Amino acid sequence: MRSVGSVTKLYSMRMRVGVSRARRLLMSDSDHPAPVPPPAPADAPKPAPPPPPPSDDRADLLTKARAFLQQPQVQREEPAAKRKFLAEKGLTPLEIEIVMSEMPKLRPVVPPPTYPQPPPSNLPVLLIGMARILSWLVGGAAALTFIYRRILLPRVIETFSARQRITAHQLALMRKLNESLAALKASQTSVAAVLPKPIPYRYTEPPELASCTSVDALLNAAKISAQSAEVMNVDTVSLLRCAMEDFRVGSAGNNPNTTELFLLLEGKVPFLTTDEGRVFENRLWETLTTTPVFVSSLAASSFVVPSPSEGETVLFWNYTPPDPPPPPTELETSVQRLAAAVPKPSAEKRSPMQHALQAMTDMTGYISANMYAQYSPIGSRIGASVPLGPAEEEVRKEIRTLKGLVLNRRTFLLAQ
Questions:
Q1: Which residue among 143, 270, 348, 362 is least crowded, i.e. fewest CB within 10 A of its CB?
Q2: Which of 274, 295, 319 corresponds to the end of one domain?
Q3: What is the pLDDT of residues 363-416, one digit of tens each?
Q4: pTM metric for this prediction
Q5: Residue after which a domain boundary falls, among 268, 300, 319
């Protein structure tokens, strides 16, 4: 809209400039300008029209009028304005009509095409927004970098250095521990060479069970039923040994594995399938795995080579009788005779004041028992012969005894 208004103003200004130039041309080219008559009064008669000028001058005036009307600036003016101006220059109405009719008809002025102004481009706004976002990112990154280098990085470095120092200290302690353990092991080795050898494992079965070779014979010798809880009192080593002997008889001398051994025991002793029997089975398992007389191997017998297996390892058990104990030495025999000759101390020791302590305890018990007894007035007892109970008589005797002891002790102290 601003462009259309500016074009219109410019066009009107050019028209005004052209009209002023045409007027100057007519005024300069007219050699005989028409005299301007003085103003006449209103009631005076109208003067007669002036005589027409010579033909040469009129022809020249008409030529100038035609040239004036052909100017582009004048052609845009209104016809009334043109007639008025030509009449002022001395043309008659007839000449004005002739000159005006000779002029070609002007085409209507077509205003310049006006197109809607395109919307402003968003590129500057987009570039400004991107620049702003980039500035924010750069500022934030700079701030984070500053915070990291000034605050976080020193603490991270300090933490890593502290961890390295702790690791170095722990490694030094571990080296010292290894050195001390090596020194201790060397000292123990040197000292253990002087110490006597440990006594080998010795176990002696009960005599009545040592000759049994089967579980049934063992239960008969112990006079125990296989379904009673008395089975828990049977020697566990003897029971496991007899079970292995039973299995060898039925398997051509092969040793049983753990599952076969306990299945045989559960078949021979039904008590093991009960809840209490499970506890006894745990005892049997501990005896089997901790007693040196039971040796485990990967082969069922010494003639069978074990085959490597990827699954669970199966252990076969064998009973190795312990070596017979050596005869006792002369020193052991003498010590045994001495221990048998020394009288055994009594389990119950009595002190000299045991009787007095017992009396004080009885009196305390009596006082505690009668503290909350039913109250009986003292006046009711006066003059009445009330028999005392056995407990009261006993307390009376104890009080008299204590009184005599105190008096005697006081007398002996004064004599000394």
A1: 348
A2: 319
A3: 787 777 766 555 554 444 444 455 667 777 887 888 888 777 777 765 555 444
A4: 0.36
A5: 319
